[in-house]
Amino acid sequence: MPGPSSRPYESPASEPWPYDEAYPDDPYELDEQSHSNPGAVGASALPSLSPQTPDVLPAPPADSNHTLVVSDATQVGLYGDLPPAEQVRPYGGRYRGRRVAGDRHDPWLSRLLFSGRLVYLIGGLAVILVIALATWWFSSGRYLKVPSLAGLTVQQAKTVLQNTGLQYRIGKPRRNPIPKDHVIKASPASGQRVASGSTVKLTVSLGPTIFVVPNVSGQPETTARAYLRQHHMQLGPHKLTTSSTVPAGDVIGTIPHAYVKIPYRTKITLVISQGPGLPNFVGMQVTDAETAAAAGGYTINPVANAKGQEPANTIVSQNPDPNTPITPGEVVTVRFSPGPPTAPVPDVTGMPIAQAIQTMHNAGFRITVNHQGPGATVGSYTPTGDQPKGTVITLNVGVFSGL
To answer: In total, how many domains does the chain have?
Structure first.
C-alpha cells in the first residue's frame, strides 16, 4: 500500500479540462498554465511514481508539454482516468485564442526584412538604377565640353585637358602675334561636346614675326604708304602736324620710329606735314607780324583794343592760335593794345634827385638816372610833355646836366 505522500493522482470530476481553451499563439503559454494549475499532470505532480515502478519512463525536459508517458496502460488507472475523447478539441487551423500579456505583433519593418519581398524590392530598385545610369551615360554622361585653351601655355593646356578627362596632341606650330609656346587654338574648338577620352589637337605659336620699321621720312604720303604695304606692314590712321622744314603732304616720321623692331601686324602711324604753322605773334609789334605774314602768303588783320597797359601797337592775342596750319591767302586776326593812358611829365628841373624820383613815380612814370658830373641836382630830363603812363623818364643829374 502506498503511503499518504504517494497516493495516486485523482483528477476531480468537477475540475474542467485544462486545455478546453484554444491554444495560445505563444507555445510557452501552455507551459505557464501547467505550472500555475495545481491539478496539472506531470512529473512534478507525481513524486511517488518513480519508487512504485521501475518501468516508468524518465520525465521529459522542462520545456515539453508535460505529457505523462507510461510503459504499461494498466498503470494509468493508478493516477486517474484520462478525460473522455470528446472533451479534447482537435487543432483545426490557425490559433485564435486570447493573447498572453507581454506578447506583441512583429512590426511591419521586421516582417519586411525577414520576408522574400525585400529581395524583390531591392532587385527592382537596382534594375531601375542601372537603366537610369545607362540612359544618362549613352545620352549625355559620356560627353564632355572642350575647355577654353587659347592663350594658355602648352603645359597649362595639357594639365587642363588631363583634368577634364581628355587627351591631347600637338599640331603643326606656326607664327602668331601671341608669345612663343602659347596655344593659338584647339580643335575641336572650345565649348564643343566630345566623348570622354577624346583627343584635342593644339596649335602652338612659334612667336610673332619681327619687322624693322623702315625710314620713310621726307617721302610723299602716297609713296610711303605703298612702300610699307609692299613690305607687309600694317598701316593705322595718319597724324597731321605742322612743320617749318617739311613741305605739306610729306612724311615727317612714323610711330613707332624708324628702325624699331615690331611684331607682325603691328600698325604703323604716318606723321604727315601740314607745312609751317602760324608763329606766335603775341608780344610782337603789328608791323613785325605783317612782315612775317607776307613771307608766308597770308595776311594780318590788326584790331585795336579799347584800352591796355602794354605799349601801343603791341599784339596781345591772335586767331588762329600759334602753330595752327595756315594755307596761302588765309587771314590772321591780331588784337593789339592802344597803349596805356597818357599823362604830363612833371617838371623836376633843379630838384634833388631823391625828390625828383618820388615825383615821377607819383605821376605814373618809371625813371632812370644819368650822372653828368658831381652833384645831386636834376639839370634836365627826357622825354617831356604828355607821355603814356609807365614810360621811362631819364633824369640827368650833376653840374654838367644843365648844359
So the answer is: 5
User: Is residue 145 within 8 Å of 191, Cβ to Cβ?
Assistant: yes
Matching residue, cell 618820388: 358
Question: The domain containing residue 37 runs over which residues?
Answer: 1-104
- Same domain, yes or no: 322 and 355: no
Whether residues 91 and 4 share a domain: the answer is yes
| Secondary structure class of 301 (helix, strand, coil) | strand
Preceding omega of 383 cis (within 30 degrees of 0): yes
Taking the C-alpha atoms of residue 287 and residue 312, their distance in angstroms, rounded to an integer, is 12
Q: SS3 for 153?
A: strand
Burial class (CB in 10 A: 0-12, 13-18, 19+), 28: exposed
Q: Do 189 and 221 lie in a common domain? A: no
pLDDT tens track for 15-37: 444 444 444 444 444 444 444 44
Pairing of strands 251-255, 143-145: unpaired
pLDDT in tens, 237-247: 999 998 888 98
| 82-91, 148-157, 386-395, range with the lowest pLDDT | 82-91
Same domain, 232 and 328: no
- Distances, alpha carbon 133 to alpha carbons 128, 136, 138, 143, in Å: 9, 5, 9, 14
Q: How many Cβ atoms are within 10 Å of 34's Cβ, its own excluded? A: 19
Looking at the fold, whether 13 and 68 belong to one and the same domain comes out as: yes
Tell me which long-range contacts 69-77 makes (C-beta under 8 A, separation of at least 24). Answer: none
Asked which of 78, 104, 130 is the last residue of a domain, the reply is 104
Strand bridging mode 167-170 / 199-204: parallel
Q: How confident is the model at residue 77 (pLDDT cuts 50, 70, 90)?
A: very low
CATH number at residue 259: 3.30.10.20
- The pLDDT tens digits of the residues spanning 301-336 come to 999 998 888 888 999 999 999 988 888 889 999 999
User: In 137-276, where does DSSP find H-type helix?
Assistant: 154-164, 221-230
| φ and ψ at residue 202, rounded to 5 degrees | -105, 130
In a domain, 371, yes or no: yes
Tell me if 112 is assigned to some domain: no
pLDDT in the model for residue 326: 85
pLDDT tier at 141, thresholds 50, 70, 90:
low
| Separation CA 276–CA 269 (nearest Å) | 21
> Which position has the grid cell 531601375?
128
Final residue belonging to a domain, choices 204, 224, 252: 204
Measured in residues, the chain has a length of: 403
In a domain, 117, yes or no: no
